[in-house]
Amino acid sequence: MTIGSMTIGIVIVAAGRGERAGSLQDGPKQYRRIGDRPVIAHTLERFLTWRRSGPIVVVIHPDDEALFAAATAGIQGAAAVITTFGGETRQRSVYEGLRALSGTEATHVMIHDAARPFVDHGVLERVAQALDEGQDGVLPAIPVSDTLKRSGSDGLVHETVPRSGLYAAQTPQSFLLSEIRTAHEKAAALRREDFTDDASIAEWAGLPVTLVEGSVDNIKLTVKRDIAMADEKLSQSLSSAALPDVRTGNGYDVHQLEPGDGVTLCGVFIPHDQKLSGHSDADVALHALTDALLATCGAGDIGDHFPPSDMQWRGAPSKIFLDHAAKIVRERGGTIMNADISLIAEAPKIAPHRQAMRETLCEILGISLDRCSVKATTNEKIGFIGRREGIAAIATATVVYRGDAA
């Protein structure tokens, strides 16, 4: 999808043999079945259903054409996917994918491992946001939580490595397409085949790489046990005996109107002869939705996290509050499924701005547009809303939590 002058193309690397994931008789790991579907089918669907995906290239092994066709049969949108053959190394396969993508309208690229089938739209949105802000390279990553040791050839621990500032890299790693292709070309010309990921090639080429929040669920299936655990996870979620932990939260907010030049609702500024009074930008819609999300995991309300007495929030955009609530939900094992906002106001008219509001929610929450709803009604000139003294908002959020979520 094109946003402004940016089109984000996708390269999914699926040409490996995956020897560590079992015997060759089991087939390449990207075609093993988890949740009764091939790994690559899960991965590809994550991008096909993402609102900002541009052209998609899947790099496959020359021997896997039939496997790929069978794995993606019946997936909506798969017919438009471009396939190309990879090389002997992942680095070479990525280069071939970049070459194939260069013939499309893509200006930027996300490079993703096919063996990471649990990447979610939240990660993709955070990476895309960094690209929107002009970053040359973007790397989703999570802080290293384990204590790290360095050993010698004698098998003994020689030192404990401080983990402060250390991160585990994930994919998709994203770049300006022309820059990362040039970096790959330089590496190939110098016969450098020792890079373990695309961010390391970018670093070597002098391209700055920015870290964004990854996801603990965005694991790479490497060994046979990983595939078995992924299958168990998906099979349990599909089992009728396993009841999903679906939680619904509600939020309500109201702000007074006063003379001004416009109101901000759902992150969208609407010119008007009044403005909303409040300590931040007084966006009643995002305030109500923030409370709704926090309610799904018992995390208090917006006032607990952003007290009106704290001067740093004076005039602050309410996007900050909603983004904070969404992060809390994710950290506690939640996946945001739906956000619904009802605005109650006599004026201004909401309908002309509803699509922009939904797109803003989609961007902040990292969910698809069809999961974001904004509605509006008047109060039939009754009460303080009817007298145009204020605007109110009611929000509902639906979140599914993992079975092990707190």
From TrEMBL:
Annotated keywords: Isoprene biosynthesis, Lyase, Metal-binding, Multifunctional enzyme, Nucleotidyltransferase, Transferase
Entries under SUPFAM superfamilies matching the protein: IpsF-like, Nucleotide-diphospho-sugar transferases
Residues the record lists as binding a divalent metal cation: D253, H255, H287
Site (Positions MEP for the nucleophilic attack): R163, K220
GO molecular-function terms, A-Z: 2-C-methyl-D-erythritol 2,4-cyclodiphosphate synthase activity; 2-C-methyl-D-erythritol 4-phosphate cytidylyltransferase activity; metal ion binding
Organism superkingdom: Bacteria
EC number: 2.7.7.60, 4.6.1.12
Domain 2-C-methyl-D-erythritol 2,4-cyclodiphosphate synthase: 247-399
Biological process terms in GO annotation: isopentenyl diphosphate biosynthetic process, methylerythritol 4-phosphate pathway; terpenoid biosynthetic process
Region (2-C-methyl-D-erythritol 2,4-cyclodiphosphate synthase): 247-406
Annotated binding of 4-CDP-2-C-methyl-D-erythritol 2-phosphate, by residue: D253, V254, H255, H279, S280, D301, I302, G303, T377, T378, N379, E380, F384, R387
Catalytic activity: 4-CDP-2-C-methyl-D-erythritol 2-phosphate = 2-C-methyl-D-erythritol 2,4-cyclic diphosphate + CMP; 2-C-methyl-D-erythritol 4-phosphate + CTP + H(+) = 4-CDP-2-C-methyl-D-erythritol + diphosphate
Site entry: Transition state stabilizer: R20, K29, H279, T378
Pfam families xrefs: IspD, YgbB
Pathway given in the UniProt record: Isoprenoid biosynthesis; isopentenyl diphosphate biosynthesis via DXP pathway; isopentenyl diphosphate from 1-deoxy-D-xylulose 5-phosphate: step 4/6; Isoprenoid biosynthesis; isopentenyl diphosphate biosynthesis via DXP pathway; isopentenyl diphosphate from 1-deoxy-D-xylulose 5-phosphate: step 2/6
Classification via PROSITE patterns: ISPD, ISPF
PANTHER family tied to this protein: 2-C-METHYL-D-ERYTHRITOL 2,4-CYCLODIPHOSPHATE SYNTHASE, CHLOROPLASTIC (PTHR43181)
UniProt function note: Bifunctional enzyme that catalyzes the formation of 4-diphosphocytidyl-2-C-methyl-D-erythritol from CTP and 2-C-methyl-D-erythritol 4-phosphate (MEP) (IspD), and catalyzes the conversion of 4-diphosphocytidyl-2-C-methyl-D-erythritol 2-phosphate (CDP-ME2P) to 2-C-methyl-D-erythritol 2,4-cyclodiphosphate (ME-CPP) with a corresponding release of cytidine 5-monophosphate (CMP) (IspF).
HAMAP family the UniProt entry points to: IspD, IspDF, IspF
Record's protein name: Bifunctional enzyme IspD/IspF
